[in-house]
Amino acid sequence: MATVLITGCDRGLGEEFALQYAEKGDRVIATCLDPDAFSSGHPNIANIEVEKLDVTDESAVLALATRLHGTAIDILINNAGIPGPHPPLEGTDTELWRQILEVNLIAPFVISKAFAAHVAGSEQKVIAFVTSRMGSISLNNTGKSYAYRSSKAGLNMVMKSLAIDLGPRQICVLGIHPGNVATTGGRGMTVSESVSRMREVIDHSGPHQTGTFYNYNGQILPW
Fold first, then answer.
1. For the chain, what are the domain ranges?
2. What is the pLDDT averaged over residues 121-125?
3. Is this model's pTM higher than 0.70 or not?
4. Residue 56 carries which DSSP code?
5. What is the pLDDT of residue 185?
6. Is the dihedral of CA 206, 105, 152, 37 positive or negative?
7. Which of 33, 128, 148, 170 is the most exposed place for a label (fewest CB within 10 A)?
8. CA-CA distance, 61 to 84, in Å (whole number)?
């Protein structure tokens, strides 16, 4: 049984990660902005521990890391993030941009640093970031989305540096693009399928894969 810590479990990918790992029998520590809503929505899952956490509150992150001192975390999934909007040049809101950078870029770094020792003490030793191919400079052929693209490009660089710095501790650090996930009435994979495929990438990872930017299907994406 592995121990998995996941951020941003209020809905979407984070919620699904928590449910799938719990169904597998793993111990899940699911962080949420509204833990009561999560618990009331999933009342009968004994192996999910729900923690209230605003990922931008560094003191709260450090407090949680202290409470979990001595807990070996096999898989840390930095999932919490702001997914949009994606306006053109003229519609870019710089105040929102700062908020997106705080949530999508700085918070995952703070969390990874706070829990690195917990991950190093585990058997699996994986830190995974839910990133985006929109953070790939090579794949940007359409422009727009300055805030979101820059947050994910920055996250990819954070991931790469962490892979180097945590390499001596045998921690595998990955970035994974979840694919085109369908919203209500839209096209694309289901949330369940996306998470299942990303879990496969995580399950097959090890020290030799550290610092890699993956698509949900295991394909390596260009920077």
1. 3-215
2. 98
3. yes
4. T
5. 58
6. positive
7. 170
8. 24
Within 68-156, strands assigned E span 75-78, 126-130
Rg (CA), the chain: 17
> How many C-beta atoms surround the C-beta of residue 105 within 10 A?
20
Exposure class string for 1-12: b at 16+ Cβ within 10 A, else e: ebbbbbbbbbeb
Residue 157 phi/psi, 5-degree rounding, is: -70, -40
pLDDT of residue 183: 60
Which of the four pLDDT bands, split at 50, 70 and 90, describes residue 212?
very high
CATH classification number, 3-215, choose in 3.20.20.140, 3.40.50.720, 3.40.50.2000, 3.40.50.2300 = 3.40.50.720
In DSSP notation, 183-194 reads -TT--SB-HHHH
User: Strand runs (DSSP E) across the chain, as ranges?
Assistant: 3-6, 27-32, 48-52, 75-78, 126-130, 172-177, 212-215
Closest C-alpha to 142, from 97, 99, 86:
86
* Strands 126-130 and 75-78, sheet pairing: parallel
Angle at CA 102, nearest 5°, toward 90 and 77? Answer: 120
Query: Tens of pLDDT along 82-120?
Result: 998 899 999 999 999 999 999 999 999 999 999 999 999
Rounded CA-CA distance 195/98 in Å is 28
Structure tokens belonging to residue 99: 């908020």
